TrEMBL record:
Xref: Gene3D superfamilies: Zinc/RING finger domain, C3HC4 (zinc finger)
InterPro entries: RING-box_E3_Ubiquitin_Ligase (IPR051031), RING-H2_APC11 (IPR024991), Znf_RING (IPR001841), Znf_RING/FYVE/PHD (IPR013083)
Cellular component terms per the entry's GO annotation: anaphase-promoting complex
A single GO molecular function term of this UniProt record: zinc ion binding
Keyword Zinc-finger: yes
Protein name as it appears in the record: Anaphase-promoting complex subunit 11
Keyword rRNA processing included in the entry's annotation: no
Location of the RING-type domain: 34-78
UniProt GO BP: anaphase-promoting complex-dependent catabolic process; cell division
UniProt xrefs under PANTHER family: RING BOX
Superkingdom in the source lineage: Eukaryota
Keyword entries, A-Z: Cell cycle, Cell division, Metal-binding, Mitosis, Ubl conjugation pathway, Zinc, Zinc-finger
């Protein structure tokens, strides 16, 4: 259920308009942070690609920089990842 709160700032609204509520890489929800972070917060936002898959910023950055993924593909559908 999505509650619209007019006074919320746009960043907060955007954060909740993700297609999925868990990260496809670490499987943690987006209201928690990735395994690399100790506390949830704005330093670890969800990041959506053009394929509409959404991951923690740190998770997708780590994935894209991995030597196992030289073509920089989305881990969910193996399409080239584009922001
Ligand atoms: Zn994650
Ligand atoms: Zn993080
Ligand atoms: Zn994808």
């Amino acid at each position: 259920m999505r509650v619209k709160v007019k006074s919320w700032n746009t960043v907060a609204i955007w954060r909740w308009e993700v297609n999925d509520d868990i990260c496809g890489i670490c499987r943690n929800p987006f209201d928690a942070c990735c395994p690399s972070c100790r506390v949830p917060g704005d330093d670890c936002p969800p990041m959506a690609g053009q394929c509409r898959h959404t991951f923690h910023l740190h998770c997708i950055v780590k994935w894209l920089s991995s030597d196992n993924n030289p073509e920089q593909l989305c881990p969910m559908d193996r399409q080239p990842w584009r922001k």
